Amino acid sequence: MTSPVIPEFTETNLDALAEFEGRLVVLVAPDGRLDQAARRVNRLSRGALARFAQSERFEKLKEGEAAELAFPAGLQAEAVQVLKLGRRAPADVVRRAGGAIGKALKEVPVLVAAGNLRHVAELALGLALRAYAFTAYKAEEAGKPLGAVTIMVTRPDEAREAAAGVAALAEGVFFTRDLVSEPANVLTTAEFARRLEGLKTLGVKVEVLDEAALEKLGMRALLAVGQGSESPSKVVVMQWQGGKKGEKPLALVGKGVVFDTGGISIKPAQGMEEMTMDMGGAGTVAGVMKALALRKARANVVGLVGLVENMPDGRAQRPGDIVKTMKGDTVEVINTDAEGRLVLCDLLWYAQERFEPAGVIDLATLTGAIIIALGHENAGVFSNNDALCNAFLKAARAEGEGAWRMPLGKAYDKLLKSDLADMKNVGGRPAGAVTAAQFLARFVKEETPWIHLDIAGVALVRKDGELAPRGATGWGVLSLDRLIADTYEEHG
Ligand code: BES
Ligand code: MN
Ligand code: ZN
Description:
The chain is α/β, with parallel strands linked by helices. Helices cover 35% and strands 20% of the residues. The longest helix is centred in the middle third of the chain and has 16 residues, at 166-181.
């Protein structure tokens, strides 16, 4: 398990700046003005900081970005990192500035002179999120701790209070990233379930339904996906009951395909290794549950994940098979690689039958088509309810997690018509992400407010980001946590 770097807050001590031997971080406002600490560093370094603040290089930096002066004269520090950041910068800019510190974080300690920066908690969150690294399988780096971070502020008590929730959020995001990063030989369905059971220590109720239980419930579509694997299929139900007793929960539903070979409709070898991330939806659900429990959210939320492995085998399902869903509708399986929707349809139905939830949000690395449509910048958002959808989009915007609404409609639904069964599991190449969503919509009751998030393009990225190194992003944990805080929690 990867732990986030959580900074200490202390009072500003200008005399400490000269002696500090690690990496020193100072703020310079976009207009080039130096605060008290920066002025002291400037004096000690005989004007180096002021010269930098007047340079073209500084001018070219965007607010929230940083530059580094290595081994500056007059200081013990091995580097001074200069953040271009005004003390009244907006929250998202401060978070990105924190990301710049986190990106540079190594083994050496860091001292940040933040003075009376507003939104200083965002600096701590951005730092923690960007400093993440999945090193479990790197002999050199595994277990090597990152340097401690101290943030000097004018009012440390206030800052500490403001930053109280940072660890909960970062731990939630890290839980997701760790799960998504794990290879499929380690993160089997059983190991995934074990890790989720670990949430019990935080007060989450966790149940693991085995194949016999799923059979009894009639989840034949979900079971069919896993029937070619040595790893038994499982559904894990996680309940966080922090809200009013008896109040209907929000249900989060996640696709947890621990590896997707495509099954008998096998995928090409090129890039197949990426399909270890096909449990990203379940990973995000797990991360949100962890964050909610850690910050003791005053809301009732239930997380349900379907853990299966899609393998080709003598017992695997075939193209042409017809399976019966828990709802009772039958599905002609045209392509065994369109397996996510077979897992989710039974989970969605079960979630509604058992919990009568106030809303359902499912997350899935569902289609390659959503990557063609939106790239790696935005998740696809599909919904039957404008109010819930707009609340989510607003939360995602505030968290800087890309999300873009996509259409649903009868004309797309028609593409799922089957000659033999109630529907087929693919609708052809056009609008592939929409027909996948349309398939799920058939398992959502009319009265249930519902959002489907296709996160195939955003759960894992190949480029370093401002708040995450390349690899698993943990997309959605922050937005869903905020949505829950804003719309489901009682305040006051
Ligand atoms: N897990 C994949 C979707 C995916 C693709 C996720 C790339 C992440 C990156 C999904 O199960 C799948 O294979 N979808 C098919 C559906 C098709 C057969 C209708 C696809 O998108 O090609
Ligand atoms: Mn697939
Ligand atoms: Zn898949």
